[in-house]
Predict the structure.
Amino acid sequence: METRWLYHTSETFPTLVEESKGVCVIPMGCVEKHGLHLPLGTDCFEATETTYLASQIETACVFPDFIFGDVPEAYPSMPAGTITLPVDTEMLLLEQLCEQISRNGMKKILVVNGHGGNNKWLSTFLRKMYNKKHDFVCAVYNCSSSKSVNRVAEYLLENGTGSVPELTPEDEKVVLDFHAAGKLTGHACMGETACVMGCHPETVHLERLGIESGLPTHVADYLKEAGIEIKDHGWGLNFPNAFTGHDPVGCNERIGKAALRMQAEKLAHAFKVFKEDENVLKWHQEMQKGW
């Protein structure tokens, strides 16, 4: 069935609530630089496409993507196109969106996070929500695409050549060689490049590879080694090009389709567990007794 909130009418929406068993999923990303070869919306594209594909396997309502993820390197000279809001604004916006989602009958809300920079404030957001009186419950699923190609390689190694139908023999070699070499992944890397190529290939510019490096400068490592934490653990200093990883040479749409499918299958399992769970909402309500 159609699982996307915006595609329904007021007449058909109650059916979506029923078929989803009250589960609504918010894909979350951010708007930031991803090297010179990937679009500003990389994390949003990954989270939204994975969520939609998963909802076609295990029905869940898909809310429009939350693009206002946290970009901690929000200094005045940030690359063109970057968007960031104060964390308290992000939290307030997400909370009020959840209240509106709940008003429409969805009592289990799952944030599918595709941006590592959101992890800390989302943990704080969950703590905040569990300490407020609501008739719904929130949870977070971290949908990391950075290792998506490695997961395809691991599947091939376990199940043999030809086991990933999207791939040609040449694709299998690219994937297995990348995995065997233990190449660096993290941001705008092989995994993220694959996933964007799998859903929005027109936004990927592999011809821009090699202009800026995705390898670390290590300039802030000494602080981490001493147990000292600074903003973003020094990521912006160690990776000043907003790119973490070896160049994703050989990446293509077929590899991306395979990576996205496997990622969606894993997320669909999480949807199923969350839909069938009888505890999280009950636990939240029990915590609120006496308020």
